[in-house]
């Protein structure tokens, strides 16, 4: 169990800058998730932590120990690879025992550990099989078992679920969470899947283009994205973004300001939400999550007028794809609601996010 | 041209084609019909030869002066000449007459491809040293044309006066580093001259030994024994020991030494004059000297008579005999002498110089060619024709081995000669009673019946017939490869296996059942691990295979691993350089290595002397091929050089198939570089490298080129492996093809067992392991 501290870590391959001064801290025993689109540098960061690559700049400390110059085997870590990387010439039992045998652990201790781990992961009946005789899910569990058996002070996961099918992925996700709660080993988990990130993370780091865009507890990040990138990356379906201009509101109440989305459509701005940040005539990007829209029946209440293009019924909920002027929009409706293409929809958005259209920075946090 | 005309022509084209085809057909039939042959004029005379360069041009010039029926000349490669004759003449597709060395007559006559020459030979024209060479049982089977023998080349500056005898050559006062005499002392052909001086011969004389008038080499018994042989060996050994004659000399070395003025005299044939570069010091050619130790008898070299031989069909045609007479005439051979410096076989040959005129002619550039021919002609008069008996060919190998052993000081002459005789007698074909073929016929019959029964039973099954019908188109796709494989692989395989059940020379094979196998497997009645026995050679072969495979795998793996390191620069360059040994044809490499291992002049010895010069050490150059251990090491070195690139390439390929993740996982798991190699990389390379290793083992087991070309089985056949031993039975021991075939069948069975048995055992074990499980589950 160890805390991780990275400071100003930079890495380039040739002329490509992969990591550009990344600093992060993972508390002892926490489950940290590095999430971001492909090419954002998250896997490289993990490999730097593992020692499979060396940093160009910056320091990496495990606890008080600077590990920057240490080989992987000196860092006391265990890693689960995307491809599982099981030793194809060894049985499951030998795979689990491999790291222990390298460390000259006494035989009875190895056997006990293998028994314990295989019990934890339900691998008892597979111990004498070869990796090629296992299914994808089983291989994944062996890979995890191999990491656990070592009792390393740090677990690294490199997209361990991306080769599994959807249902299995959900099950294993829960399993990983359960194991973490049981073992409490500091873990760093890399994924591009925001659902995994949201469900697993104690601390989440959103990476983009070699930098950390935002870090913190997953729900905090979800509720208060610091940038338009983070807002768009987290949440499914993704947040809607509408380009708008701040104008004087017609009609009753409010701040007297509204957001003009174009083609005569506008959203009223709730009072007090963006005090001081938004002035009349400014251009802003409005962010609304699909489930933050509410249909408005009363024609007297000011609302955003949208036209339905099509509906996707998922059973529990329905997503309506619509347009406001030229701008596309996704709205979550109740499970039984159906709207025909061309139908009009009047919407209200009690929770909105505003971003600086030029730099993507969040203007002010809605409470 | 008007359009209708064009159309008419277009319409007419097929008809015209048909007419042409018909005309061609008629022409072919007409030409083929014997009745029409008269219209073609006299049948041409077909003459085959193996001449090249000046000799070929001279022959063409000679034929151009012939006014009789047209002559068709065909030049064939020298090494395939006899084989072509043997194949073509019995089928009637061969020549009417051909030119070859007289010593083949015995063989050719046995095969019935040569006939008595009759009136083609002008008997009075040839001397008593020449005529016996072309006679078989008193009947002439060839018309002598030209003569070839060795003579003495003398460096004028170093040796101004002709040395009277061999001993005075040895006593010449010469500058440092100059050999008094250079010749291929270990070559039996050249040793014959010394042997003849002492009155000996390789084949024992017919009748009473030493009886007057006995022709040397008239019997089929080994003659390289007894006092004459021992004294000849002792003389040469003392010459080599005293540094008069270079040890281990081959033809190239003799040429080099004489051309560089490093040898005062050299014994060689007329071919040396062609090989000497222009900057060679001025030289003359004189007959070989006398030998004081042999009571003043002269050295008498082997004489080869190039003769016109008539195929049976040609001998029956008067115009062919007339043509042969014409070619061998005084005028004809004069052309060969002028154009190709060939020594005429006729007594009345013109333009030959003698005595003081000859000596002076060497100083006159205009007469130098004549002088050379004349000198060799003088030598030919005292030369002794090579015996024509088939047994002669079987004497070379034992005689050469005895020579080598004695000259290298390994064995006393008497002992070496006794071994040589034993070897000769051992390798001679023995009279074997023909076996009754009934058991074989019965076995083959039963097998055929069983196969037929099995086939019929399968064919009666409806689903089988349906499957065959369904896959008929697929059979069409594989048909050509089946045919090619059948013709190139299976037919020779079965033919070889069939020959292994017979003895005798090709064309007169006798079925003897398992005789050859029994002989081989009982070591021909001798001790099981006697020199040259199957078991000893098998042991050597296994050791050879194991040593080579070990180093191939070791070096290949290490280089493959080094080359796969991502940090290595110039990787592509190293890869190309390291593959070169593989890209060069193996025989070229083998010959290059053989040269490097030469005791005196090889690169290894040069390296040793360089080391000696540098560090003041006293390392002796090694006679690599005089001891088993060093000869075996030389062979292995050569073959390791040839074989490691393949394993390296296989390793590289195998390494690319190892996922990087797995190695990284091991790294994270705590494996050091070494542990990753032993516990991950090597086990994962196994599936790629194992088949290559099996393949490499089979190749090495059968690596004929290296063994044959580098050590040639030296010393004394000890480094021979099974294939080179099989080769010797077929090609240097009187064509005992049955024996050789039996060897190859045994090799096949050994390799088959060696490569297939492990797999079979594994499968059988796996089945046995599964069997109890099946019982439990059922």
Description:
The complex is a heterodimer of chains A (367) and B (778). With 367 residues, chain A is an alpha+beta fold. In chain A, 23% of the residues lie in helices and 33% in strands. The model of chain A has no long low-confidence stretch (mean pLDDT 87). Chain B is globular. Mean pLDDT of chain B is 85; it is low at 1-13, 32-39, 209-214 and 773-778. With 778 residues, chain B is α/β, with parallel strands linked by helices. Chain B folds into 4 domains: 45-146 and 308-336, D-Maltodextrin-Binding Protein, domain 2 (3-Layer(aba) Sandwich); 150-208 and 215-300 and 390-427, 3-Layer(aba) Sandwich (D-Maltodextrin-Binding Protein, domain 2), CATH 3.40.190; 432-530 and 736-778, no CATH class; 547-719, MetI-like fold (Orthogonal Bundle), CATH 1.10.3720. Chain B has 31 helices and 17 strands. Chains A and B meet through strand 6 and helix 2 of A and helix 27 and helix 28 of B.
Strand content of chain B: 5-15%
**Runs of chain B with pLDDT <50, length 5+?**
1-13, 32-39, 209-214, 773-778
Number of domains of chain B: 4
Look at the structure and give the mean pLDDT of chain A: 87
What Rg of chain B, in angstroms, do the CA atoms define? Answer: 33 Å
Would you identify the CATH H-level superfamily of the largest domain in chain A?
P-loop containing nucleotide triphosphate hydrolases
CATH structural architecture of the largest domain in chain A = 3-Layer(aba) Sandwich
Number of strands of chain A: 20
Report, as a whole number of angstroms, the end-to-end distance of chain A.
36 Å
CATH class category label of the largest domain in chain B: Alpha Beta
Structural class of chain A: alpha+beta
How helix-rich are the residues of chain B, as a percent range?
55-70%
Question: Which fold does the CATH topology of the largest domain in chain B refer to?
Answer: D-Maltodextrin-Binding Protein, domain 2
The 3D shape of chain B can be described as globular
- What's the pLDDT, averaged over the residues of chain B? 85
Sheet with the most strands: spatial strand order of chain A: 6-7-8-3-9-10
What is the CA-CA span between the terminal residues of chain B?
A: 92 Å
What structural class do the secondary elements of chain B suggest? Answer: alpha/beta
Strand element count of chain B:
17
Full CATH superfamily name of the largest domain in chain B: Periplasmic binding protein-like II
Oligomer: heterodimer
């Amino acid at each position: 169990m160890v805390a991780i501290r990275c400071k100003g870590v930079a890495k380039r391959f040739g002329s490509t800058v992969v990591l550009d001064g990344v600093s992060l801290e993972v508390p002892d025993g926490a489950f940290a998730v590095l999430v971001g689109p492909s090419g954002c540098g998250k896997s490289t960061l993990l490999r730097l932590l593992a020692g499979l690559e060396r940093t160009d700049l910056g320091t990496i400390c495990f606890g008080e120990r600077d590990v920057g110059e240490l080989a992987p085997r000196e860092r006391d870590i265990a890693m689960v690879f995307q491809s599982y990387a099981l030793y194809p010439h060894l049985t499951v039992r030998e795979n689990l025992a491999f790291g222990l045998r390298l460390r000259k652990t006494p035989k009875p201790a190895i056997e006990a550990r293998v028994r314990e781990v295989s019990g934890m992961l339900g691998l008892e009946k597979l111990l004498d099989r070869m990796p090629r005789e296992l299914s994808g899910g089983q291989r994944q569990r062996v890979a995890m078992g191999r990491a656990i058996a070592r009792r390393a002070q740090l677990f690294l996961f490199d997209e361990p679920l991306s080769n599994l099918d959807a249902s299995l992925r959900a099950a294993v996700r829960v399993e990983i969470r359960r194991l973490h709660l049981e073992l409490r080993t500091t873990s760093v988990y890399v994924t591009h899947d925001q659902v995994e990130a949201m469900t697993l993370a104690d601390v989440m780091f959103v990476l983009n283009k070699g930098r950390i865009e935002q870090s913190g507890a997953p729900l905090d990040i979800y509720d208060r994205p610091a940038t338009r990138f983070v807002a768009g990356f987290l949440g499914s379906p993704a947040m809607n973004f509408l380009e708008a201009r701040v104008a004087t509101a017609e009609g009753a109440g409010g701040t007297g300001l509204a957001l003009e989305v174009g083609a005569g459509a506008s959203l009223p701005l709730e009072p007090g939400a963006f005090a001081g940040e938004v002035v009349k005539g400014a251009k802003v990007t409005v962010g609304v999550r699909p489930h933050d829209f509410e249909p408005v029946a009363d024609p007297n209440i000011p609302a955003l007028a949208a036209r339905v293009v099509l509906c996707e019924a998922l059973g529990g909920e329905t997503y309506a794809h619509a347009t406001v002027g030229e701008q596309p929009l996704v709205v979550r409706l109740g499970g039984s609601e159906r709207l025909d293409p061309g139908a009009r929809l009047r919407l209200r958005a009690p929770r909105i996010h505003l971003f600086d259209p030029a730099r993507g920075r969040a203007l002010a946090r809605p409470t | 041209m008007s359009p209708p005309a064009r159309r008419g022509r277009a319409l007419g084209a097929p008809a015209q084609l048909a007419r042409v085809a018909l005309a061609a057909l008629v022409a072919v039939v007409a030409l083929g019909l014997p009745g029409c042959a008269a219209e073609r004029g006299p049948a041409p005379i077909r003459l085959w030869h193996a001449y090249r360069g000046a000799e070929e041009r001279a022959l063409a010039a000679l034929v151009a002066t012939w006014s009789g029926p047209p002559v068709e000349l065909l030049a064939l490669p020298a090494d395939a000449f006899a084989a072509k004759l043997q194949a073509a003449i019995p089928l009637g597709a061969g020549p009417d007459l051909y030119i070859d060395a007289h010593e083949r007559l015995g063989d050719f006559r046995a095969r019935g491809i040569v006939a008595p020459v009759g009136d083609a030979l002008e008997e009075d024209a040839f001397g008593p040293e020449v005529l016996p060479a072309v006679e078989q049982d008193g009947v002439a089977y060839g018309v002598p044309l030209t003569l070839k023998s060795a003579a003495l080349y003398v460096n004028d500056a170093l040796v101004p006066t002709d040395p009277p005898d061999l001993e005075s050559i040895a006593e010449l006062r010469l500058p440092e580093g100059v050999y008094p005499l250079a010749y291929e002392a270990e070559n039996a052909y050249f040793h014959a001259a010394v042997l003849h001086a002492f009155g000996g011969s390789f084949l024992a004389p017919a009748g009473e030994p030493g009886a007057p008038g006995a022709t040397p080499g008239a019997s089929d018994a080994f003659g390289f024994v007894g006092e004459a042989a021992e004294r000849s060996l002792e003389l040469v050994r003392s010459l080599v020991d005293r540094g008069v004659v270079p040890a281990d000399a081959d033809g190239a070395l003799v040429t080099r030494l004489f051309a560089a003025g490093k040898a005062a005299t050299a014994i060689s044939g007329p071919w040396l004059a062609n090989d000497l570069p222009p900057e060679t010091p001025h030289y003359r050619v004189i007959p070989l000297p006398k030998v004081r130790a042999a009571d003043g008898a002269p050295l008498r070299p082997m004489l080869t008579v190039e003769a016109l031989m008539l195929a049976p069909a040609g001998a029956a045609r008067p115009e062919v005999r007339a043509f042969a007479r014409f070619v061998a005439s005084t005028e004809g051979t004069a052309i060969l002498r002028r154009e190709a410096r060939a020594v005429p076989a006729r007594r009345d040959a013109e333009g030959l110089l003698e005595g003081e005129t000859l000596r002076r002619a060497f100083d006159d550039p205009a007469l130098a060619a004549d002088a050379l021919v004349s000198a060799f002609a003088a030598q030919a008069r005292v030369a002794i024709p090579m015996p024509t008996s088939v047994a002669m060919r079987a004497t070379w190998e034992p005689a050469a081995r005895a020579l080598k052993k004695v000259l290298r000081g390994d064995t006393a002459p008497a002992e070496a000669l006794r071994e040589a005789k034993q070897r000769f007698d051992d390798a001679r074909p023995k009279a074997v009673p023909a076996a009754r073929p009934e058991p074989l016929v019965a076995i083959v019959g039963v097998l055929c019946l069983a196969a037929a029964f099995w086939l019929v039973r399968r064919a009666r099954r409806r689903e089988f017939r349906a499957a065959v019908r369904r896959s008929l188109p697929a059979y069409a796709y594989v048909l050509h490869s089946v045919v090619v494989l059948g013709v190139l692989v299976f037919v020779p395989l079965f033919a070889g296996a069939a020959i292994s059940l017979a003895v005798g020379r090709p064309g007169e094979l006798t079925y003897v059942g398992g005789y050859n196998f029994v002989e081989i497997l009982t070591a021909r009645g001798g001790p099981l691990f006697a020199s040259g026995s199957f078991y000893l050679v098998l042991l050597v072969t296994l050791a050879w295979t194991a040593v080579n495979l070990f180093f191939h795998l070791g070096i290949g793996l290490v280089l493959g691993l080094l080359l796969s390191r991502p940090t290595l620069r110039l990787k592509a360059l190293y890869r190309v350089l390291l593959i070169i040994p593989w890209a060069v044809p193996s025989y070229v490499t083998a010959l290059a290595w053989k040269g490097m291992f030469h005791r005196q002049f090889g690169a290894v010895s040069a390296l040793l002397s360089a080391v000696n010069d540098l560090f003041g050490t006293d390392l002796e150059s090694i006679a690599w091929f005089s001891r088993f251990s060093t000869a075996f090491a030389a062979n292995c070195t050569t073959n390791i050089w040839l074989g490691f690139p393949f394993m390296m390439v296989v390793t590289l390929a195998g390494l690319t198939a190892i996922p990087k993740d797995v190695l990284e996982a091991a790294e994270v798991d705590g494996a050091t570089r070494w542990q990753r190699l032993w516990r991950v990389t090597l086990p994962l390379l196994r599936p790629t490298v194992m088949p290559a290793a099996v393949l490499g083992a089979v190749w090495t087991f059968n690596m004929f080129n290296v063994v044959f070309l580098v050590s040639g089985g030296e010393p004394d056949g000890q480094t021979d492996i099974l294939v080179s031993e099989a080769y010797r039975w077929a090609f240097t021991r009187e064509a005992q093809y049955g024996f050789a075939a039996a060897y190859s069948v045994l090799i096949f069975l050994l390799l088959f067992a060696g490569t297939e048995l492990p797999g079979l055992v594994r499968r059988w074990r796996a089945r046995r392991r599964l069997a109890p499980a099946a019982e439990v589950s059922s």
